[in-house]
Amino acid sequence: MSITILGIESSCDDTSAAVIRDGVMLSNVIAGQAVHEAYGGVVPELASRAHQQNIIPVVAEAIRRAGVDRTELDAIAFTCGPGLMGSLLVGVSFAKGLATSLNIPMIDVNHLQAHVLAHFIRLKPDDKGPSFPFLCLLVSGGNSQIIKVSDYDDMEVIGQTIDDAAGEAFDKCAKVMGLGYPGGPVVNSLAAEGDPKAFAFSKPHVKGYDYSFSGLKTSFLYTLRDRLIQDPGFIEKNRADLCASLQATVVDILMAKLLKAAEDLGIKEVALAGGVSANTALRDTFMDYALRYGWTVHIPPLAFTTDNAAMVAITGYFKYLKKDFCLIDTVPFSRVVI
Ligand code: KG4
Asked: 138 CB contacts (<8 Å, ≥6 apart)?
């Protein structure tokens, strides 16, 4: 018997719905929110309002594109947290209402686990995900973590940032160069024309597998401050080199700890997840490490690097198999847990 799951994602500024049947993706609809562009970052109140406008058409479209009828859904999986409380409430409340009206189970999904399990979304029936155990580098605007994944529901964070996330470092450095928000993709494209060795920025000394990016941000800021005194046109003249050097430093920091973890734990199956995994230098370095260290690497398709409901639906699918449902009194949570 087939299992059909509707996934709903509304943790930040993307409203998304997806339908997955027996692990194979039938649809994945994402509505972004351009309203935040003018503010240089996500405005929580505006995000919740936009989710309220988007949620019904996005869910209807996901069901339509999947070619299924609402009555064929076996369960509704929704992002329960972490995320912005007002945004989460829209998706959680909608999921509860729809599941209750269809009289089907609800499944609460941790957004970070969903990013990791995105690797198991199948686009065709014979696609395969990573084998257990594997290490997942989860890098986004809010998180930088190394996770040891022993099973679909057995994950251990073995390292994480003690201050800023990798995406935050990209975004904040881009902001001081006047590159707009989110800065990561802009830094990535400008870096293509620059020299990654043009500038040296400080790298952190943090114990174990933990990360730190606040020192890099300060070092970047001080370089600009000092050079701008000598030459007010410094940023404009060196934009590509600054981006390339910043990007190379972030990638070096991320990969050094990941390599250490992989060697210490003897794990050669390594995956990448989260918004920053769209970064081409990081993706290239993963491929390079596969050759150099014999890793089997798993790099997500670009559509699954950012927030999407397909990853919520696949997580819901695995929880459905274990009958791991939640009750109507489940409430969203904003803080990071995995
Ligand atoms: O996972 P995600 O979509 O959501 C949040 O964490 O909110 O990650 C967004 C982050 C932002 O910091 C953005 O600048 C970064 O991912 N990002 C990138 C690239 N694409 C997105 N950073 C570097 N290079 C990219 N190509």
From this structure: 112, 115, 116, 144, 145, 146, 147, 273, 274
